[in-house]
Automatic annotation (TrEMBL):
<feature type="domain" description="Receptor ligand binding region">
    <location>
        <begin position="3"/>
        <end position="240"/>
    </location>
</feature>
<dbReference type="InterPro" id="IPR028082">
    <property type="entry name" value="Peripla_BP_I"/>
</dbReference>
<dbReference type="InterPro" id="IPR000068">
    <property type="entry name" value="GPCR_3_Ca_sens_rcpt-rel"/>
</dbReference>
<keyword id="KW-0325">Glycoprotein</keyword>
<keyword id="KW-0675">Receptor</keyword>
<dbReference type="InterPro" id="IPR001828">
    <property type="entry name" value="ANF_lig-bd_rcpt"/>
</dbReference>
<keyword id="KW-0732">Signal</keyword>
<keyword id="KW-0472">Membrane</keyword>
<keyword id="KW-0297">G-protein coupled receptor</keyword>
<dbReference type="GO" id="GO:0005886">
    <property type="term" value="C:plasma membrane"/>
</dbReference>
<dbReference type="GO" id="GO:0004930">
    <property type="term" value="F:G protein-coupled receptor activity"/>
</dbReference>
<keyword id="KW-1133">Transmembrane helix</keyword>
<dbReference type="InterPro" id="IPR000337">
    <property type="entry name" value="GPCR_3"/>
</dbReference>
<dbReference type="GO" id="GO:0033041">
    <property type="term" value="F:sweet taste receptor activity"/>
</dbReference>
<dbReference type="GO" id="GO:0050917">
    <property type="term" value="P:sensory perception of umami taste"/>
</dbReference>
<protein>
    <recommendedName>
        <fullName>Taste receptor type 1 member 3</fullName>
    </recommendedName>
</protein>
<keyword id="KW-1003">Cell membrane</keyword>
Length: 240
């Protein structure tokens, strides 16, 4: 789940059977502090999304940063419910306050939607270029990276999970593409799903047909694949 990195889940009394397949947010917070120390950045702003992930990761970061002579010029939370009429004002107020502090470094702990909203407002309000430190929760999001004029926000540094190789995964996907391109596979698949009328059997997926193995090859080494593999393997091993 999206909150699987929460440090709360490390409490073995409350969650005796929880098995972690991704690093805890504590690891993330420690890594961010090490990065700030490396570059001597000790006057910063930190923003989190107002949800369990954002509050939790930011809280851990603040507790660790305080022990490493890092001054927090501004700390704030941004909304996750954009239907709320107050959301726009909250985002604008956050950017105004960041601007007042004259910080050049912003650490952002948020999922892609709140991060996207903050970045869009930063661009529209003319916030000067900053160094944004982020996590894959928003950094690897297509929606965030495709914001118009996104290059004007400055420099983005971030952390992604260390990925391992999932044995046989590339070959599996390659074989799957080969078989999907054969009509017999599609016919069998549709029949298996009991879609038996002739109109459906002759229908091709216009979005899927042009996709080739080359189009998805970059995603095959994505860091989120290994944790899924580890989780499935763990369940299978436990059942065995």
């Amino acid at each position: 789940g999206l909150g699987a990195s929460s440090e709360k889940l490390s409490n073995t009394e409350m969650y005796p059977s929880f098995y972690r397949t991704v690093p805890s947010d504590k690891n993330l917070a420690e890594a961010v502090v090490l990065l700030l120390n490396k570059f001597g950045w000790n006057w910063i702003a930190t923003v989190g999304s107002d949800d369990e992930y954002g509050r939790g990761a930011q809280g851990l970061f603040l507790s660790i940063a305080g022990n490493h002579s890092i001054c927090i010029a501004f700390e704030g939370l941004i909304p996750t419910d954009f239907a709320d009429p107050k959301a726009k004002n909250q985002l604008e107020d956050t950017i105004k306050l960041i601007n007042k502090t004259k910080v050049n470094i912003i650490v952002l702990f948020a999922f892609s939607q709140p991060a996207q909203a903050l970045l869009e407002h930063s661009i529209s309000m003319g916030l000067s270029e900053k160094v944004w430190i982020g996590t894959e929760a928003w950094m690897l999001s297509d929606t965030a990276t495709s914001i118009p004029n996104i290059q004007s926000i400055g420099t983005v540094l971030g952390f992604v999970m260390k990925a391992g190789t999932v044995p046989g995964f590339r070959k599996y996907v390659s074989d799957l593409f080969t078989s999907v391109q054969q009509d017999e596979f599609c016919q069998e698949s549709r029949e298996f799903n009991h879609l038996m009328n002739s109109d459906t059997l002759d229908t091709h997926c216009k979005q899927c047909d042009p996709i080739s193995l080359h189009d998805v090859s970059s995603a095959l080494s994505h860091s989120q694949i290994q944790p899924v593999y580890v989780a499935v393997y763990s369940v299978a091993y436990a059942l065995h």
